[in-house]
Task: inverse folding
């Protein structure tokens, strides 16, 4: 089934070239099915790239998905035009009286700042509290995962001596969990962050279950006891070249950027990276949409 997005959204052209199944609202309305309504709180600076990353994965399941985009009203991104936000995005104030089947909260380049010092922290807290009653399931990514662990469960983050950047091998801790159905016992996933969370704190918290971890990159996937919150500290949504773009950006700024681990062949940035996480990324999003959204959400919200 397709993903339903606006005709003029720039990500649409990218997805069409990749033969991702998408449709417009007119055709979607003719189908006699109940689509899933997914809200994406996009906290990433390059919003158009993140839109394409996430919609690529949301559009590869048997379910029809309507996607809405939201940004924080208390902080205006400097890397996207105001006209793009006004045309394709909404604010929390505009949607707080609605119900959604699923919510995605992305990462953000603020991980080295204390949560309470982030300009939109209070707004994000309001959104996460609202999601308890207005959203069936929420997927939190990277800093969004750390924010959820801190806000809901009191699990903080700590700084790393150097950036965790690269493709890391992970082990599944419980293959019977629905989110990991079809996963190999070991799989690869991208990480890109300066902070981490404590495995010990997660394992000691009765409200959170650790599902997958890496010896080098730490905890990767966690799920709340009620299965309504899923936290992913890495970036399954990244495409093949995203880490290379981040590395080249940092080098151009004169930063002491380290070559992403296990990413470029022979660790040579001149070589084209090979994608080793795409199939598991699609599987994770498919499992989330099916088992935690579609199978759990009411046909009619009331």
Result:
């Amino acid at each position: 089934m397709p993903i339903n997005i606006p005709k003029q959204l720039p990500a649409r052209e990218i997805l069409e070239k990749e033969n991702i199944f998408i449709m417009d609202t007119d055709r979607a309305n003719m189908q006699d099915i109940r689509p899933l309504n997914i809200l994406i709180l996009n906290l990433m600076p390059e919003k158009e790239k993140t839109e394409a990353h996430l919609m690529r994965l949301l559009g590869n399941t048997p379910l029809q998905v309507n996607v809405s985009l939201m940004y924080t009203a208390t902080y205006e991104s400097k890397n996207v035009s105001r006209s793009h936000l006004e045309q394709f995005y909404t604010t929390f104030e505009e949607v707080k009286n609605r119900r959604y089947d699923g919510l995605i909260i992305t990462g953000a380049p603020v991980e080295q700042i204390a949560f309470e010092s982030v300009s939109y922290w209070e707004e994000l807290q309001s959104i996460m509290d609202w999601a308890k009653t207005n959203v069936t399931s929420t997927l939190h990514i990277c800093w969004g995962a750390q924010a959820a662990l801190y806000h809901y469960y009191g699990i903080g983050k700590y700084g790393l001596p150097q950036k965790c950047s690269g493709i890391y091998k992970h082990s599944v801790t419980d293959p019977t969990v629905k989110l990991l159905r079809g996963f190999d016992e070991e799989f690869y996933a991208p990480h890109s962050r300066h902070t981490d969370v404590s495995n010990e704190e997660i394992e000691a918290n009765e409200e959170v279950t650790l599902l997958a971890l890496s010896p080098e990159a730490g905890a990767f996937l966690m799920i709340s006891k009620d299965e309504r919150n899923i936290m992913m500290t890495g970036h399954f949504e990244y495409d093949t070249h995203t880490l290379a773009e981040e590395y080249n950006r940092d080098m151009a700024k004169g930063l002491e950027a380290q070559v992403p681990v296990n990413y470029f062949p022979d660790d040579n940035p001149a070589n084209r990276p090979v994608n080793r996480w795409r199939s598991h990324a699609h599987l994770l999003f498919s499992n989330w949409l099916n088992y935690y959204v579609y199978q759990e959400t009411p046909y009619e919200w009331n």
